[in-house]
Amino acid sequence: MELKEWNLKVPWGNIALLSRGNTSGEPVLLVHGRLDSAATFLPLLKLIPAKYYCVLVDLPGNGKSDPFPKGMVLSRFIGVPIIDLVVQHLGWEKFTYIGHSLGSEQGMFYASIYPKRVKKAVYLDPGPSLEYCNAVNYKRFFKSYQNFYDNYHKYDSEREYTKEQAMRSVLNARAINEEEAEIVLSRCLVETGPNLYRLSWDRRYKITPGFNSLPQQFYIDLFSQHRTPSLFICASVMTDLYYQQSNLSVKLMSHMSEENKNVNVIWVEGGHDVHLTNPERFINELLMFLDNDFVISKL
Length: 299
What we know:
By secondary structure, the chain is an alpha/beta fold. Helix content is 36%, strand content 22%. An 8-stranded mixed sheet has the order 1-2-4-3-5-6-11-12, sandwiched between helices. Strands 7-10 form a two-stranded parallel ribbon.
């Protein structure tokens, strides 16, 4: 699979980009989740026809992109201006958005702000991220900031690993095998010495406080206000934790699919990283969605 790689210059450094496909083809932007990189989409990318021009982003402090300046807390909204910078750089007026986890959440915010740019959207297992996008009360909201500044040295430090230790760390954190862990690490290992590495992931993403004390209905109204054709692909293993009737994800998907015939929800056997481990399980539905020329009602 032939990939092009380049950097977008920004005030604090570089945003790393990958692309595949015909540059004059249908544009598709893929945005990964928390503490990940563009590499997470590589198995899926192999199954997407080259008629689509796919561009993959390493969010700042992930993969090969430079982190944001030290000293600041990263909010959950932080990816939206990054998406905007990339879209402006590419000169796209309309495109299809594919996001995983936090990347899904960022895509929902972006589509709410720039509805005319997002032609259609695919949200890969958004439930876990949506569950944490809102601080349910001020105490929880404040605690995120207190945690960061009370433990600033921890979030600012860079631990060194051997390759084997880094591999074990990824395997312990995610339900993937060694081959898949190699893919994950392919853009995240930074060599610091003989068989010594650091992980490029910015630890501040472990906090990312949401907005303070907004009701679930706020997000339902915000994310469903525009009739963007959307495909939700949800992992069955996550059902008990993030897809119950009380969860924002279920309420949002139910409302959007009831109000908009161009919104579909499918369930796939697998875990949160099913797009990495088993993309073949949903590729037919995904390609059917990408190929569909939706008629959008103005009602």
